[in-house]
Amino acid sequence: MLDTNVLMHDPMSLFRFEEHDVFLPMITLEELDDHKKGMSEVARNARQVSRELDALATDGSLDPKEGIALAKSGHREASGRLFFQTTLLDIRLPAGLPQGKADNQILGVVQALREAQPGREVVLVSKDINMRVKARALGLPAEDYFNDKTLEDGDLLYTGVQHLPADFWEKHGKTMESWQQGGHTLYRISGPLVPSLLINQFVYFEAPGAIPLHARVIEITGKTAVLKTLRDYTHAKNAVWGVNARNREQNFALNLLMDPDCDFITLTGTAGTGKTLMTLAAALSQVLDERRYTEIIVTRVTVPVGEDIGFLPGTEEEKMSPWMGALDDNLEVLARSDGTAGEWGRAATNDLVRSKIRIKSLNFMRGRTFLNKFVLIDEAQNLTPKQMKTLITRAGPGTKIVCLGNLAQIDTPYLTEGSSGLTYAVDRFKGWPHSGHVTLARGERSRLADFASEVL
Question: Which domains does the chain have, with CATH numbers?
Fold first, then answer.
């Protein structure tokens, strides 16, 4: 039995239960009717569910006892049947639950259906935690809707980095083929390590007294993989717009950000790991120095952390500016890194930099195509998978998209680490030759911020 919030969360949830039969109480249809007005995502989903139900029942073959075959809609994975509450069930609720509330009526239908169908298991599927708690308190089986979750546990998310085993050089050192190409050393390795590797994954080997290795997997063919050594962005001569990598993961991230063959990059990590600063430095370097992209487009989800302060005055850019405090802070750091320019030079650079940055709202992204742009999506953990798809499919020829986020800071009430659009993108893009992901582990903001992250 489906709760209304499952249908409004995923309009195609009717077809996601494979061989199981789906039962819809009448109160669910009433609630769908109440939510169908408006332009919000919830209202759109409610209208889509109504259309799906209409399409299923058009040929008039709705038999209360037989139900409707879900497979006839073209969704072959759904071999179950859909039933509506067409008869008056004997609903008896415990005295503590008020009769008028829709949630309580659905619980009453679950209880009555269990009594009416003693030979079958009846399970309530709901996104509402309180609803599931109430159901279990009444002795009714209830489950969350899991189909929207990319991962069960955020800790299982692909990190983009793998530590090579301690005996790496002993096992592969003598048999490994190596050659020089474009200032990089390439190694061809084979053996049991290869199946665990993915294209554009970073591997490293560090041990006292042994030769360190920091490399990226650039090719996997059969049982062999090719590793390519990295450019060392920790060295001052390789600074990107005055910014150097301060740790291993930052070096990995800059290698991805500066690679013209990487069209889609995701960077995750806690506050202060340098995600925005490195991305902005790489963007400015490639827009102003290398002229690889024409401009930088910055966008983010406008979800307030505390109470909403209401509507903001001005144009689109002016409305977005309070949300872009992080961008201004990082631009200030980048402007200060040039010590030789003097006050006038820095002011001129600031004006030039800001002329190349466009701040856009997510609300107006549909239908757009970005040509030769560097697109930076900040706070991407607050995006739903559908919003993430809308943004990534805006990319035209020569565009690079970088998504930044911290999965521990999801501010949207209906998203979790497992169902966030950022998790979805990281999981779906891993191993694609033109994308890369790095989880930044170490904070570089200040000793105060690092200590606060640990103890608070």
Answer: 4-143 (3.40.50.1010), 155-229 (2.40.240), 248-455 (3.40.50.300)
